[in-house]
Amino acid sequence: MVPEHRGCVIKVVLLLVKICMRMMFAFVGAAAAPPSRRTGVREKPPLPRWKRSGGHGTASGGTGGLCVGSGRVRSRVGIQMDVKEPRQDGQATEQMQKLQQRGSQWYVNFTGFPFPLRPFFKRRTMRKEVIPGTMWTFEQEHGLGFTFVAVNIVMTVIRLQSGGLWVHSPIAPTEECVNLVKELGGDVEFIILGTYAYEHKIYAAPFSRKFPDAKVYTVKCWSWPINLPNAFFGIFADGELRNDDRSTPWADEIEQKVIGPATLGIAPYSEAAFFHKPSKTLIVTDAVVHIPRSPPEVIDRNSLLQGASDRFYSSFRTGSVEKPPRPEDFPEPSLELGWMRMALLSTYFGPYDLLNPRGSFDALAGRLVVSPVVRKLVYSRITGPLREFVLDVATAWQFTSIIPAHFAAPIAASPKDWLDAFAFVLGKEETVKLPEKDFEILSGLERLLRNIGLTPSDIS
Ligand SMILES: [Fe+2]
What we know:
Blueprint: H1 3-32, E1 71-74, E2 80-83, H2 90-102, E3 117-118, E4 126-131, E5 135-144, E6 150-159, E7 165-168, H3 175-182, E8 188-193, H4 198-210, E9 215-218, E10 239-240, E11 254-258, E12 262-264, E13 267-269, E14 272-276, E15 281-283, E16 289-290, H5 301-307, H6 310-316, H7 335-348, H8 358-364, E17 368-369, H9 372-377, H10 383-396, E18 401-403, E19 411-412, H11 415-421, H12 423-426, H13 440-451
Parallel strand pairs: 7-8, 8-9, 9-10, 15-18
Antiparallel strand pairs: 1-2, 3-5, 4-5, 5-6, 6-7, 11-14, 12-13, 14-15, 16-17, 18-19
Bound molecules: fe (ii) ion (FE2).
Region (Disordered): 35-69
Pfam families: DUF4336
Keywords: Membrane, Transmembrane, Transmembrane helix
């Protein structure tokens, strides 16, 4: 192994070990902490000395994300900030009643690879009408277990001319989610899984069991690092999504294109894109994202405030800080800071400077981009098939908006925006270049996967 690669490999392995240890300590710590004599509630283990100088960022109240948590938040530097009081007026009460009528948000999940995906027990579903009577998005929170890192995950529902529903990228079928789908009227006719990615595949089977008459279509699915059959995940597909397939039952209204086949290690990489012709909407899963400057509403506000806290930063600190930070190094907790850190951690696994993430966030947010993690770990390995797919989508479909399965949706975007997002693979100059130093962790991970043979060399 090349010496410089060896250093990166060691860094990545240490990072993975650190995360695994934190997960283990989260279990052990919670079980070992004695209950408080006063409250009967288990207390957190004491913090290391250097982390104790000053209050810890906390927020009290909160209603499962419906309202912003109430109370005061104290930063490491002792600054207190007001957090919006939950509005216990008629409007808030009405919202709560509506939610209760819509059904339970309960959904248990402890699976995920390589880390479990949260929320573990309860998740809110938000429905947004994109085109009256025709198209809706459904959002839930989607996070990394045992951390406060969370983004959103988006399901798209389209009413076909038959009156039935076409569901793309199903999410957790909580009672609330299922009721929100049923409220639309019409049968769920098709459930579409346009990727093999675990975070989306995990919900296809339980969602289809709630709508047993729906037909399930998937791309050529596989799993990583062991290629398990779809049946292992409870998915019994009625059909496979193929590039430019005109024989699908929805072909008159929705066209499709599929990347590849492109070999990515042990099996072909697949992702499908769809074009809803009446609305000129492009629907993708992970191909592109548009990170909003403000956090999506579905993300729990307390998680965002935790994301801005010193404890969160200390857990994930990356790049620029070589020694334990001092209390005065920490900025005041805010939803904005928490969101910047979460967006960067979920897309880079750790940007260069998590303490002051503004520069990295500004380079990434507010425009159509390929998520750095997808770009580095997937697309950099399949540049040939990807280039063909990107150009095909841009020339065949004159879309005016895009709905991805994460972050902002829908986004006003044209084929030119799409091509700009993929400039790195088309040999074009990038409008805004992402900082190379932010890719350090992803580059190390990519080299590790290549060196141990789980991904091949570039096949373009
Ligand atoms: Fe995804």
